[in-house]
Amino acid sequence: MTERFINEDLLDRDEAGTVRLRGSRCPHCAATTFPQQACCPRCARPDMRAHRLPTRGTLWTFTVQGFKPKPPYDGPEQFEPYAVGYLNLGNEVMVESRLVFGPGQRPCLNEYMNLVLVPYTTAPDGANVTTFAFQPAAFDPDGDDT
Questions:
Q1: Which residue, 118, 134, 117, is CA-closest to 59?
Q2: Any domain includes 30
Q3: Rounded average pLDDT over 35-57
Q4: Average pLDDT in the 5-25 region?
Q5: What domain count does the chain have?
Q6: pLDDT tens-digit series, residues 107-129
Q7: In a domain? residue 78
Q8: SS in 3 state form for the chain?
Q9: Which of 27, 81, 96, 145 would you call most buried, defined as having the most Cβ atoms within 10 angstroms of its Cβ?
Q10: CA separation for the pair 103, 45 (Å, rounded)
């Protein structure tokens, strides 16, 4: 069965096969954005460059999405509440993301979290569509922060 990202503009795989978020960075003022943008939000120059974001960050804040999102939501009909939060990725950019936890785990502010792929829906052609989320990670001072 085929598998694809929810949006090819948001994610890609680096040379080692690691899934990363696709952001952009200004070559003039170093502003970093997610998702990618053509113009810099800080200095307004129109030449942002593609920039792969770190795969690990810290949880800044979170809440629980307790109701089915409004259109264009096209996820599973049977909606289940999920945690969503803002993560600080490498002190470069804040990213809003779904959060996933194991049984009995709860979000903890400033907790290290890793980028993961999670199932989103099944496309009309039968492909499994995945999206990104972050899950807790044990602190590893030698871990991937790039």
A1: 134
A2: no
A3: 96
A4: 92
A5: 1
A6: 899 999 999 999 988 888 989 99
A7: yes
A8: CCEEECCCCCEEECCCCCEEEEEEECCCCCCEECCCCCCCCCCCCCCCEEEECCCEEEEEEEEEECCCCCCCCCCCCCCCCEEEEEEEECCCEEEEEEECCCCCCCCCCCCEEEEEEEEEEECCCCCEEEEEEEEECCCCCCCCCC
A9: 145
A10: 46
- pLDDT value of position 1: 66
Structural domain contains residue 38: no
User: For the whole model, what pTM was predicted?
Assistant: 0.85
Structure tokens, 135: 């899950």
User: What is the spatial distance between Cα 52 and Cα 83, in angstroms, rounded to a whole number?
Assistant: 24
Determine contact, residues 23/52, Cβ cutoff 8 Å: yes
**Residue 68: which domain range?**
3-16+54-136
